[in-house]
Design a protein that fits this description.
Two copies of one chain form a homodimer. Chain A is α/β, with parallel strands linked by helices. In chain A, the strands form five sheets. In chain A, strands 5-8-6-7-9 form a five-stranded mixed barrel. In chain A, strands 11-13-15-16 form a four-stranded mixed sheet, with no helix packed on it. In chain A, strands 1-2 form a two-stranded parallel sheet. In chain A, helix 3 (81-95) packs across helix 6 (195-205) and helix 6 (195-205) packs across helix 7 (207-214). The two termini of chain A are 22 Å apart. The relative contact order of chain A is 0.14. Chain A has eleven helices and 16 strands. The A-B interface holds A 11, 286-287, 289, 291, 300, 303-311, 314, 316, 318, 321-327, 330, 333, 337, 340-341, 344-345, 348-349 and B 11, 286-287, 289, 291, 300, 303-311, 314, 316, 318, 321-327, 330, 333, 337, 340-341, 344-345, 348-349. Strand 16 of chain A pairs parallel with strand 14 of chain B, so a sheet runs across the interface.
């Protein structure tokens, strides 16, 4: 899944080059490329499919030239994850009705790739043996208030349990309780299932959506597919797969994963995952000369010099035509800022 | 006088385009151009001479195309104001031994140009009638601690007094006393005298300097002048005209001026002299969207958007390859910052 706009990282992430296409960690590979590299040992290249917004097609081709052109599914509109996953499942099921699939966001950070591979392999074995919707739950390592949590129920296999509840982002007090009980895992938005299992679940819990895709019967996996999507995808109701299916279905399981995971959903998470200097400053892209400044993250164009004095715990993001200076504690306001900028300057700076 | 480097305004003012060449107030004219415009009603065009460092010759020609080419005096080295003024005086005296002259910095702000013209005209009358070194003293309007002051002595003509003392920058308490007494005026570094008067004073108080220029007798005002300067100017001891002459001579007078004046020597003075929005922010060059931010000055490339949150009384200066973020209260540290940057990155960012 590669269609997000990454507005929380504006102005570093822009509408024409969102977060997943950026070399976010300065490794030389974008988050999308890292996601591709990670999945390559697990899924044959010809079975790796990228679903994205049609405006990002050139970026996908540029960053993943080895991806087969017909494995890029281009959404003509943004409709959240349920329609995206439904399309992919119909597409895959048309090619192989018995196929199983992993659904992976392309803009997250994962460390410990061996653990990841083991976990995903075990997950595939589990979903291929029955009719199960499996989500990966990440073992929490801190009382994070920015994530949703999954409470585990009865064990059904090694490291695999029934899901008891999905919970929204908790406050800090509750997050600490979650961490102590050992029953709660971070909801990473990574799913495994047979294509037929998710289509069945979608049919049951979002019949409007599947009714729409069912009209394309015989077209998926054929040259007529993209034309069908162009005409019909916009009519899909926008909905997340969590809300549409996962929180409703009764065949939902969680595999407890131990690899490192971060959704890089916030500047603070990028800060936390970046190397820091002696004053706990992160400088990405440019050179930093700092006085009485600590706990900041500076993201600037390559080679730019930042001289900072008297800044504590700020985000300083210079994107060439836009400069954002904002306390890390205020980063939840950035979406509102982007809206304000849009109101005042139209699309100029988005 | 147009040879300064303006390092206190780094990175907005750069070695290759210092403060006097910048459209500092967003009026469409640089400080140098404004200085030229201001002097034009007082001095015939063919008598306006610019003394600058030789590296700025192209900038002078670009900004003042109407200036006569032989009226640009190019210093091969930086030696402060005494050698600069000495050269100009020798040059002018060679053309007209009876000439009087005004010495004016090119990087200050002056408002009330009618008052300025009256003041300068009266000053010329005074210095042409005798052997006097006249400095303009600006009527202070606040207890400024960033300027030197002139204490007036006995009156000798309308608004013209003997100088009693020159004083260094006072602390705030003393500056308040200065303001109350009515005896103290800001030292603006604007001088009027006959060329012969200042040469005589230089001969008396800095004989080393005049000995050097006297060796060029017969060359000033001729094609041989620039070659002579190239070979000899570097040997001049660096010194200010205040220290070399004004604080020592006994024929020093001050004309009390009432026009508005600001040496634009600090970011705070630029802030004070710029229009502000409802939150007391100054935004120059770019567009500003501010939250919980006030008392700041933002200077950015044209059209750049700055989104600021939680900044109070900061300087934010974006010069393309350098971004400075610094509390206004710390601006006296900027010179040290420039030195630190030079140590770490050589000339890259100067």
């Amino acid at each position: 899944m590669c269609g997000g706009v990454g507005s929380r990282f504006w102005p570093y992430s822009r509408e024409d080059r969102p977060k997943q296409f950026i070399d976010f960690l300065g490794t030389g590979r974008s988050l999308l490329q890292m996601s591709y590299d990670r999945i390559l040992p697990l899924v044959p290249k010809e079975n790796i499919i990228v679903v994205t917004n049609e405006k990002y097609a050139p970026l996908i081709r540029e960053q993943l030239p080895e991806l087969l052109p017909h494995n890029i599914l281009l959404e003509p509109a943004r409709r959240n994850t349920a329609p995206c996953i439904a399309w992919a499942a119909y597409h895959i099921a048309a090619i192989d009705p018995e196929a199983s699939m992993i659904v992976a966001p392309s803009d997250h950070l994962i460390t410990g790739e061996n653990m990841y591979c083991e976990c995903v392999s075990r997950g595939f074995e589990f979903v291929e043996a029955g009719d199960a919707l499996l989500t990966l739950g990440i073992t929490p390592v801190r009382p994070e208030t920015g994530y949703g949590y999954i409470q585990i129920g009865a064990p059904v296999a090694d490291d695999i349990n029934k899901v008891k509840t999905f919970t929204e982002k908790p406050n800090l007090e509750l997050a600490k309780v979650f961490l102590e009980t050992g029953e709660f895992f971070w909801n990473a938005g990574i799913f495994l299932w047979k294509a037929s299992s998710i289509i069945n679940a979608l049919r049951r819990y979002t019949p409007d959506l599947t009714a729409l895709f069912d009209r394309g019967e015989g077209l998926f996996g054929t040259p007529g597919e993209s034309d069908f999507i162009s005409r019909n995808f916009g009519a899909c109701p926008a909905n997340s797969i969590d809300y549409a299916v996962m929180e409703k279905a009764d065949n939902v399981y969680v595999e407890c994963a131990r690899f490192g995971w971060n959704d890089l959903g916030t500047w603070s998470s990028l800060y936390d995952n970046s190397p820091k200097d002696a004053d706990s400053n992160v400088a990405r892209g440019g050179n930093l000369v700092a006085y009485d400044s600590n706990g900041n993250i500076f993201v600037t164009p390559d080679g730019k010099l930042v001289v900072a004095d008297g800044l504590k715990d700020y985000i300083v993001a210079d994107a060439g035509d836009v400069l954002l200076i904002c306390p890390k504690a205020d980063e939840q306001r950035i979406k509102q800022m982007v809206n304000d900028v849009k109101m005042r300057f139209d699309e100029d700076y988005l």
